[in-house]
Amino acid sequence: MPKAQSKRNMGLSITNSNFPAIIKTGRERAFETLSRQYRGANGQFFTPYPIAEFMASLAEYGSHVRLLDAGAGVGALTLATVEAAIASRSTRSIEVVCFEKEPQFQRVLCDNLNACARYCESQEIAFTSTIIADDFIMSASAEISGTDLFRRCSLGSFSHSVLNPPYKKLRSDSDHRRALRFAGIETSNLYTAFVWLALRLLGDYGQLTAITPRSFCNGLYFRPFRQFLRDQMEFRHIHSIEQRRTAFSDDDVLQENIIFHGIKSSDFRTAVTLSKGDGISVSSRRSAPHNDVVEQSRDAMIHLALSEEEASIVRGIESLPCLLEDLEVSVSTGPVVDFRLKEYLRKNPELDSCPLLYPCHFNGNSVDWPKPGHKKPNSIKIDGAVRPSLLPVGHYVLVKRFTSKEQIRRVVAVVLSPEDLPGKTQMVGIENHINYFHSDRNPLGMELAWGLSAYLNSSFVDAYLRVFNGHTQVNATDLRKLRYPAQIDLIRLGREILVHREVDLEAIDLTLSQLIFQNRQVVALEIA
Description:
single chain, alpha/beta, Rossmann fold, 2 domains, ten-stranded mixed sheet, 21 strands
C-alpha cells in the first residue's frame, strides 16, 4: 500500500520562487547523506536546475495541471514545472504526485514542496502535493494491471509527467520484470520502464517530458519500447546534449543523453523540432515530419538528424544503389568467442596454432600482428573444436564492434591482408568483438576490400550511423542496413588507394561527396 504525505498550500507568502537556490541547497544536503557510488549503483542522478527549467519550458499548461514526477529526487523537475506553469499565466491550480522511495531524498523533497506551496500561495495558485514513498515500477504496474486488490487509492490520470528516470538494467528474473509483464510491458532497462509506465498513466493528450540515454532510439532490445512510443506518443521536441558530461556533471555520467517532449496521441500531425547543443544551449535546430523521425516499420527506429547537414547526409546515403547483398558481400560478428575456447588460446604464435585477431591488433588502416606482451592472446590452437570458427587467410574488412567514448569516428574499419600475417598460415581466427566483411566466409577481392574500408571510414558513414545509433556499439545489423556505392565504384576507389599506397580520408570524403551528393561515378583521387 502506498505511503503518502500530503502538503497543502500553507506558510508565509513569498514573491520570488528562488527555486534554483532551493534545489542547490537540497542537492548539497542529499550529497552529504548518500555517496556518489551509492547513487550510481542505484541509477540515481540529480537533474541540474537549468536542465529542469529547459525541460519544463517545452510543455504547454492549461488551467489545471496534474503532474507526475516518478523518481522525484529532491524535486528539481517538479519545482521547475510549477514555475513554468505559473509563468504561463493560464494555470490556476496545480496537483503534484511525487514518487520517491529514498528516505534521505524524501526529507529534502518535503521541504522543497513546502517552499513550492508557499510560492504558489503568493501567486494565488491552488497547490497540493503528495509524496508516495513506494517503488514506482511496482506501484504503477499494479495500478495498470489491477493485480493489487488491496490498494486504498488510485493514482488516476495525469495531465503532465516529467521524468529523469534511473538508468539501470533489469534482470529478466527480477521482481520489476515480473510486475511489468503483468502490466503488459516487456523492457530491459529501468529508464524505459519508467517512461512506458508514465505514458500509460497520462490522460488523452497528456504531455510527457523526459531526459534519458539516447540508446533506446535503435537496437533490438528496445524495439518493443519504440513500438509503444510510435503508437502512443506524438513527439514534439527532441534535444540532444552534445557533451556527455554536461547533463549530470556532478555525478560524472558519460551517457549520451537526449531530452524529449511529446503528447499522448496517435495523430502525428505536428512536425518534430530537433535540436542539439552543449547542455540547454541550442547550436542547431530543424523541423521534420513526424514520420521522418519515427520509422513506421516494425523496428520503429528513431532518426535523429539534428541539423540540415545531417539530414542531407541521410538523404545522400539512402540514395546509394546497393545493399550488401547486391555487392555479394556479407557482414558477420567474429566467430571466435574466446571465453568458450580458453583451453585453445595461446599468448604467442606456436607451430600448431594460427593468428587470432582482436581489436587491439588494429593499426591505422591495417592489421598489426602479433603483439607480444599484450594481455590478449595472439593465436589459437588449430583443433577440431576450433576449426569451424576459423577462416581462410585473405582480404577481409574488419570493423570494431565497440569504440571508446573518446574516439572521433564511430566506425573504425581496417583491411586484413595476407601479408599482415607472417608465416605460412592458411587459417585465421577473428574474435567476437570484431565485425568482418566477407564473401560467404571467404576473402574479398583486394580492391573491393580497400574501397569498402575507405567508405566505412568516411565522415559521411560516421555521421549517418550517429543519426541512428545512440551508443558506441556498431552492430552487424547496422552495417547490413547501411546502403553502399555500386561495386564498380568501390573497386575504383580501392584501386586508387592501392596505386598511391596511402589512405587520405579528406580526399576520400571529397570523392564520396561527389558520388553521394551529385550521383557521379567515383573519380580518380588526387593524392600527392
